[in-house]
Amino acid sequence: MGLLDGEVAALFATAFGGMYLDGTLHQGTGEPVYDSEGTITGYSGAGDTAVKVQVDRATSAMRAADGFSEGDVRLIVLAQTGMAITSDHELSARAVRYRIQSAELDAAASHWTCRARAV
Fold first, then answer.
1. What does the pLDDT read at residue 108?
2. Which of 47, 80, 92, 113 has fewest C-beta within 10 Å?
3. Rounded-to-integer distance, Cα 110 and Cα 88, Å
């Protein structure tokens, strides 16, 4: 396995996992299920997934993005093999549940950077 085949994510999880908070990614643990109009209605195997997360203030780019609301935060979530985060997901950390507004996987696939809003 090469560094760009997911090994970087494993290295980050090992090196930084202890410094990140325990969190829970809600729903979306399986493949999207679509209705006849193409709208996501749920996920196969939906449930909760344990993640490691850091809660931080929103970046300048997040603040400038369409849909930003005062109080939005940046969530940095260590990537796991086969895990994808989308705006259909919610994440709990520090006893707060957040709805993901946007999510982006970094180039090395080591972590997700998300803009989120407390529910």
1. 86
2. 47
3. 21
Helices (H), the chain: 7-16, 60-64
Domain segments of the chain: what residues?
Answer: 3-118
Minimal CA–CA distance to 54: which of 69, 68, 74, 27? 74
Fold of 3-118: Thrombin, subunit H (2.40.10)
Rounded CA separation 10/52 (Å): 12
Q: What distance in Å separates the CA atoms of residue 56 and residue 68, rounded to the nearest whole number?
A: 15
Residues of the chain scoring pLDDT < 70: 1-18, 28-30, 42, 45-46
pTM more than 0.70: yes
DSSP class per residue in 20-46: SEEEEEES-SS-EEE-TTS-EEEETT-
Distance CA 12, CA 85 (A): 18
Torsion of CA 58, 55, 85, 78, to 10 degrees: 120
